[in-house]
Design goal:
59% helix, 9% strand, binds zinc ion, 322 residues, alpha+beta, six-stranded mixed β-sheet, 6 strands, elongated, 15 helices, PPR_At4g14850-like_plant
């Protein structure tokens, strides 16, 4: 039966819309086989294919193991002239990078006439997930030069790659500072907490609960030692069990504490330690750094999202007002 007859019988104005909703439903449930059968039926009946149809077809191809099918679907997209549709293109791109096919993804990326934020994010995060840090930074620079505003997802890709590299060059750092500023302006909350400290001309970046740094074991050891000293001085409320839990559940360790431990491990007594933190410092870390400044007799400067904190001999310049 031809689609037009079917439409007449069912009194439907647009059968494509009906088929598309059914197709999207299958796609959402990752019912790949049903998606393909339905698509073949659409073709057989001469139902018009549009961008939404293709989206329904591409989505389940992002699941690992479906790349072969995905490539066929890509072929169909080209045949119907829908491969340059932004949503379809983004979906195909995501499919390629998720399958680790970065070169295919990049080829498509380069060909896409309209690259939106989703397109840039898909490619940047694709590189990031495959550990290609240099490609991430290069693409991020290109994105900035094109005047595309990054969002938290972009930042996650860029920062995770930088952490992977272990260091940032000054140019990238500047870029990241700008991202952070933009994000603060837009009051975006997904910004992951991170702190960095400069040592011998290299920037060391730490995320909350980070385990990526080459010295990470020494850092956690040092941190535990410091926490115990602080506890002795403070007559702390936390018991050992709680502290141990916190130590093991490293997600609880804020990035500035890791940066403090790292700096103490690597710098000489007379060096002032400067730590930059993207978010506002929390009360616990503030107290911790105050105590540590007294215990180890060192000075720390922490620049958080709102102000400078100069820690010296158990006190902070902000006088607890921040
Ligand atoms: Zn904190
Ligand atoms: Zn302070």
């Amino acid at each position: 039966m031809h689609a037009k007859c079917l439409m007449k019988i069912l009194n439907l104005e647009n059968i494509t819309v009906c088929y598309n909703s059914l197709l999207s439903g299958y796609a959402l449930k990752s019912r790949v086989k049903d998606v393909v059968v339905l698509f073949c039926e659409m073709r057989g009946l001469g139902v018009e294919i549009n961008g939404v149809t293709m989206l329904g077809l591409v989505q389940p191809c992002g699941i690992p193991g479906n790349l072969g099918l995905g490539m066929c679907v890509h072929g169909f997209c080209v045949k119907f002239g829908l491969d340059m549709d932004s949503s379809v293109g983004n979906c195909l791109l995501t499919m390629y990078v998720k399958s680790g096919e970065n070169d295919c993804g990049r080829k498509l990326f380069n060909e896409m006439p309209r690259k939106g934020l989703i397109t840039w994010n898909a490619m940047i995060n694709g590189y990031a997930q495959n550990g290609l840090a240099n490609n991430v930074l290069e693409l991020y620079k290109e994105m900035e030069s094109k005047g595309v505003c990054p969002d938290p997802l972009t930042l996650v890709g860029v920062l995770s790659s930088c952490a992977h590299l272990g260091a940032l060059s000054a140019g990238n750092l500047e870029g990241i500072l700008r991202v952070r500023m933009l994000m603060r302006e837009r009051k975006l909350k997904k910004d992951p907490g991170c702190s960095y400290v400069e040592f011998k001309g290299r920037i060391h970046l730490f995320f909350a609960g980070d385990r990526n740094h080459p010295q990470i074991n020494e850092i956690y050891k040092k941190l535990n030692e410091l926490e115990n000293l602080v506890k002795d001085l403070d007559g702390c409320k936390k018991n050992d069990h709680e502290r141990r839990e916190e130590y093991l559940n490293s997600m609880g360790v804020h990035s500035e504490k890791l940066a403090v431990a790292f700096a103490l491990l690597n710098t000489r007594k007379e060096t002032e330690i400067i730590i930059i933190k993207n978010l506002r410092i929390c009360g616990d870390c503030h107290l911790f750094i105050k105590m540590v400044s007294k215990i180890v007799d060192r000075q720390f400067v922490v620049r958080d999202a709102t102000r400078f904190h100069h820690f010296k001999n158990g006190f902070c310049s902000c006088k607890e007002y921040w």
